[in-house]
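Field log, afternoon session.

UNIT: design team B
ACTIVITY: writing a sequence onto a fixed backbone
BACKBONE:
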């Protein structure tokens, strides 16, 4: 699995952005050049834990925008599955970020389940230079804590020594 200090792979992927008639789009790493990006991957569409995360990331988009960070979700399902799921699930109709079809990107990141091949529940914070600054993988039955993703984004953006449980606005360590 790629980790902190590794370059995030360049990619182009089909995606779904919401559930409207213009929902099918193409997303590439080039469009995020020079930006902070939160990439999060989940195992499968039409499951139970995954939509709770998708909804929370969407609900918290303003928090990411306030930090000049883009959000991109995805799984190894294709863009048509993403679109069908967004149309089918009331809470997913208006996601404000793309869900990419990560059939090539997930293996390049090293986050695929070795038996089933789907993407594990993984999160990457990528800096404006395309370098991974944080990587986390969760058990498939356990949803992420979006507050923790934001907390870590604040910490890595601060470029300071941040103690355990540090939150934005608190003192950092002066060495």
């Amino acid at each position: 699995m790629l980790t902190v200090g590794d370059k995030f792979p360049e990619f182009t992927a089909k995606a779904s952005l919401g559930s409207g008639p213009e929902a099918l789009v193409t997303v590439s790493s080039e469009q995020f050049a020079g930006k902070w990006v939160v990439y999060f991957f989940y195992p499968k569409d039409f499951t139970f834990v995954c939509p709770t995360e998708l909804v929370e990331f969407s609900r918290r988009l303003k928090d990411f925008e306030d930090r000049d960070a883009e959000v991109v979700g995805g799984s190894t399902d294709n863009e048509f599955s993403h679109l069908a799921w967004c149309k089918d699930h009331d809470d997913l109709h208006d996601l404000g970020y793309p869900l990419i079809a990560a059939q090539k990107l997930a293996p390049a990141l090293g986050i695929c389940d070795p038996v089933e091949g789907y993407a594990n529940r993984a999160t990457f914070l990528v800096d404006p230079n395309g370098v991974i600054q944080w990587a986390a993988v969760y058990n498939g039955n356990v949803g992420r804590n979006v507050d923790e993703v934001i907390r870590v984004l604040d910490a890595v953006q601060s470029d300071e020594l941040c103690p355990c449980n540090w939150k934005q606005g608190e003192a950092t360590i002066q060495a």
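LOG NOTE: The helical segments are 50-59, 61-66, 79-88, 105-109, 146-158.
NEXT ACTIVITY: expression trials, pending approval
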